[in-house]
Amino acid sequence: VISGKDHISTEFRAIQDHICQELERIDGAGKFAEDLWQRTEGGGGRTRILSDGAIIEKGGVAFSEVYGPVSEVMKKQLGLNGEHFFATGVSIVLHAHHPRIPIIHMNIRYFELDSGAYWFGGGIDLTPHYVNESQAKAFHEKVKAVCDDFDVRCYRRFSDWAHEYFYNVHRNESRGVGGIFFDHLSESDNLSKSDILSFCLQLGRLFPVVYQEQVEKGRNLPLLEKEILWRNIRRGRYVEFNLVYDRGTKFGLLSGGRVESILMSLPNTAAWEYNFQPEKGSEEENTLALLNQRIDWLQ
Amino acid sequence: VISGKDHISTEFRAIQDHICQELERIDGAGKFAEDLWQRTEGGGGRTRILSDGAIIEKGGVAFSEVYGPVSEVMKKQLGLNGEHFFATGVSIVLHAHHPRIPIIHMNIRYFELDSGAYWFGGGIDLTPHYVNESQAKAFHEKVKAVCDDFDVRCYRRFSDWAHEYFYNVHRNESRGVGGIFFDHLSESDNLSKSDILSFCLQLGRLFPVVYQEQVEKGRNLPLLEKEILWRNIRRGRYVEFNLVYDRGTKFGLLSGGRVESILMSLPNTAAWEYNFQPEKGSEEENTLALLNQRIDWLQ
Do the chains contact at B49 and A243, CB–CB below 8 Å? Predict the structure, then answer.
């Protein structure tokens, strides 16, 4: 069945293959290692990790397809209204060595319940250690182009959603420069299920293109030793977001997913220096100022 | 009023003073720096941090006394049944440089609602990077002695509670070698409010004694470079616990506490190496094996 769950899984697997191939090309040295895993209650996944490449310090591109009974804890904590579920998705987080290359994340996922309800979710967002306005703009432009092809109203809606979602509430701080986020997306008057699937796949194909652009802009900038501490502090904020707020992490941990695959999003190193305050007038201070406001990067 | 909230705050402040003094003596070089902070809705705190001492890499000893209206988010997410609350406590987390000196945590807290309900909570627990059975036993013996003075049945109950509480469910792994944990403790037939307060204060006075013992056992052991990565990985697990499960962290973030004071528990550096597997027969493997079971350290 076109856009049936097996078809969607197959397309998602192909996206994982494409992205890994492209990232190996962009990195130029690192290769992905694959771990296959099975989930006791049903399904499993294909986790691919690139460690210590030329560009990428730790990069995970994970495919999973899990299904089975909706447990009590899933009902209660995730509000799932059904007896059996099926979920498939591709999740990516890349941490580069260089502080001038942003952390990047992408996720596309499909979920269905035995009640017949189904939805897609996903997003792509950029978390620079140092916010560079032209890099942020370049990223949003390409994401908007894919959104516009799908539904001209959705970039506005999904980028607002990303701003709201990728947010460390306790710090009053955006995780990064945003991007798009969407959830519970299913067919409507003017969008079919296959339209939504095709939008998710387009995002998957966009991913290596935008990452390559970020890498090219950042890789040759000077790397100062003091920037490593700042990079690690920003990575610490990333850890805070993923462990405190992220839905995918929460779903994975509560649904009995493979812990190492779920937490592949965490960086090799992170830092929490007590009450670190950047110097007045520094780039670090400027980054914080930009993360403390709602910016429309395409204005 | 004896055991009224102002009396309890005053006693908790004195415990903070005592502990900081003792820790400076044990460290031998580091000094605490103090940050006073105020909470918009009522109250504030006195956060003291020792950074980069001879023994302690990052140590926080925080006192706080906060009060005000119970917000909607506190009602919903913390289940608080009242309109106004008062909370005071002392929280400590110490991260030493040396991988053979355990992370240690202590907390004593008092909470009351305008309905008249009140309770104490707290605990002390030890998180060695390398579990050493005789160090764990020495720790539990001293904690048990304080418990026995209070109520002979409570060590069993509170140490079971610690095992259940200080647990990374997603990893099926204890945070460390346990200790005691208790919550919602209020007066009963054989315990008065001042008995419970006095137990909390005894725990506070015990803290530097047990820490000194751990420091003396660990500080002169050889420090191998490869042990730093392992220490940082274990610190990563500590971050996971505090951000995913810890009630104090959750309460602090939801009740509008000062973020840097709440997250002072996080280490200067932490590591997440994908799917790190210790060598067969290594001490690291032995530590994991010991954390994967329920051990009664006093048997």
Answer: no
pTM of the complete model beyond 0.90? yes
Structure tokens at B4: 């009224």
Residue pointed to by tokens 């979710």: A121
Q: Among A168, A170, A261, which would you mutate to test the B interface (most chain B Cβ atoms within 10 Å of its Cβ)?
A: A170
| Mean pLDDT value across residues A56-68 | 96
The rounded mean pLDDT for chain B is 95
Pair type for strands B43-51 and B32-38: antiparallel
> How many other C-beta atoms lie within 10 A of the C-beta of residue A189?
4
What distances in angstroms separate CA A223 from CA A80, A98, A218, A226, one per listed residue?
47, 7, 10, 9
- Residue A126: name the closest of A143, A105, A110, A98 by CA: A105
- Distance, in Å, from the CA atom of B104 to the CA atom of B127, rounded to the nearest integer, reads 6
Contacts of B264 in chain A (CB under 8 A): 274
User: pLDDT-derived band of residue B1, with 50, 70 and 90 as boundaries?
Assistant: low
**Two tokens at B256?**
């509008």
Taking alpha carbons only, the member of A75, A59, A105, A95 closest to residue A248 is: A105
pLDDT digits (tens, 9 = 90+) for B208-266: 999 999 999 999 999 998 899 999 999 999 999 999 999 889 888 877 789 999 999 99
**B105 classed as catalytic:** yes
The Cβ of residue B221 has, within 10 Å, a number of other Cβ atoms equal to 14
Nearest C-alpha neighbor of B162 from the set B149, B145, B176, B148: B176
> Mean per-residue pLDDT for B128-137?
96
Q: Is B233 on the interface with A (CB under 8 A)?
A: no
Instruction: Quote the pLDDT of residue A118.
Output: 95
pLDDT of residue B82: 86
A92: amino acid identity, one letter: I
Reduced to 3 states (helix: H, G, I; strand: E, B; else coil), residue A76 is helix
The answer to whether the Cβ–Cβ distance between B272 and A259 falls below 8 Å is: no
> Distance between CA atoms of A253 and A248, rounded to whole angstroms?
9
Confidence of residue B135 (pLDDT cuts 50, 70, 90): very high
Phi, psi dihedrals of residue A283, rounded to the nearest 5°: -65, -35
Closest C-alpha among B177, B200, B196 to residue B90 = B200
